[in-house]
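Hi R.,

Here's the chain you asked about this morning:
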Amino acid sequence: MKPTIYKTTIVVLLLFFIPFMPTSQAQQTKKELVGVLINHQFYSKDMPLNEIMGIQKGFQKLDDGEQHTVLHVLVPDDFVAPKTWKKYEIKRSNVVNADKFEAKVLLFDEMKKVTHSADKQFKNLKIGQKLPGTFTLQDLDGNTWTQDSLKNRVIVVNVWYSGCGPCRKEMPELSTWKTRFPEVIFLSANFEKPEIVKAITEKHGFNWTHLPNDRYFTQWVGNEGFPLTLIIAMDGTLQYLSHKTSNEIREEVFRRLKWLTTIQKE
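And here is the predicted structure, written out as tokens:
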């Protein structure tokens, strides 16, 4: 799942004018736009669009999980807000659930950093090649995992993060794979903290081995989005890589696992 980024003026206009629609229309939207967030500074929702359109790299609609949204404007790293924007600034104490919106921006920033950290040897990895580099990861039970601990086993890695709805939705189905393929090692990799990973996986009954604080597998996500599924053969070579999720993708993973585990038994 890619972050929800809006790059069309029409969508932005809708986001800005939803609060001013007649009651019957506004009720259908359910969410109230409470402000604009740029470089960790909140601004009034009345901020003119022409102030933003010339500098933005994209838009992200943030939801507090209740009835409020914020328009997160993505800007270049070296962007400095004009002094004329001062009059639109809002104190965070005046923004409903400001801490939730800020937490989502920080998570988004961290996700971008981790998913775009791959160097050349990782970016150019092809099917049939062995995984480059090394890793040492600790699962939620305190066990350590390295390349050596995965030798001579078929491995499936599911890379996800808490902001990915499709990732969470497929967890119950993925959990059934452990029973179907007991000889396969199923790893779930997430760059977030153990407590976040634990809470989500327990809520959704996701029974794989979970690797929080992951910086190794997550770097392959890049611009293609979550979840990322990897299949690694017994000889340590990459056999399958797929971004996003669908019934077709899961069926293909299942088919390849049947083939690889059949070879493993021979």
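One quick note: Residues 247-265 form the longest helix (19 residues).

Cheers,
M.
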